[in-house]
Each structure stands twice: as C-alpha cells, then as structure tokens.
Amino acid sequence: MSKKIFLPLFIVIFFTQSAFSDNVKIVDGDTIKINNEKIRFSGIDAPELNQNCIKNNEKISCGILAKESLVKKIGNKIPKCINEGKDFYKRTLAECFVNGESLSKFLVRNGYAFAYRKYSKKFIEDERFAKENKLGLWSMKFIYPWEFRKL
Questions:
Q1: Nearest to 141 by CA among 58, 36, 37
Q2: pLDDT at position 18, please?
Q3: What CATH number has the domain spanning 14-148?
C-alpha cells in the first residue's frame, strides 16, 4: 500500500510556464522578474550591479559578472520557482529552478553568489566548494554584498 504525501498549497507554490508568459527578465545576480513579479532568490546574496572586484590588479564588474552568469544559465527558459514568502521590500522570496537545477545552488557553487547565512544555512557547502576551488569571485578580492551595501 503506497502512502501519498500532500504538502499544503500555501507552503509550496510552483510558478510554471502555464502561469506566466515568456516575459522573464534578469534584474541582477539574485533577482529575476517573471511577468513583472520581482523574485529574489532566498538564501543567497550576489554582488550589486555597481560592485567591483579586483583580479590581477584589474577592476572587474563582479555584479555584472554574476548577472551575466545567471542570464547564460537561464537562457530562453522560464524558471520554475518555489515561493517562500515576501521580503521587507515586498519581493517574492523563492528558490528557482531551470531543468530541475537550483539557480541559487548553481550561482553559489560556481562562485557568483554567497550563502546568505543571516537568512539560511542551505548553501554553505556550495560556498565552501567554490571557495576551495577558487571559482568565480573566490579568484578575486571582493567585499561581501551585504558589506558593500553598508558603504
């Protein structure tokens, strides 16, 4: 006899292709818009668009780099997102997926975003992997985004 497990609808809401048109916009390295709904990836923090890093004594636009990696990863696909509520700015907080792969995990594991420990412990191992392998921003001198915003 098989048991079926049902999650309450208010906990897990999937945004699917049928719910949205092809209107997907990448705002920055941790925020997208689907049909004008701003979705902030929960549990991670990517550099701000105007944030720079240093590599080989050269300024790198690490905020743009993070955004471009997300643009490339999403391509022409529509992310499917699991809604986790709203943030202080009334943005939808969610973990989003393309082809079953978490965009947040991808960004952190490849060094384009950081585990946002203030809000989640979910991506710490992925960050450790990126740091140990000097991937993405870990190959540069940088300021964490949450520190950069305070400047």
A1: 58
A2: 37
A3: 2.40.50.90
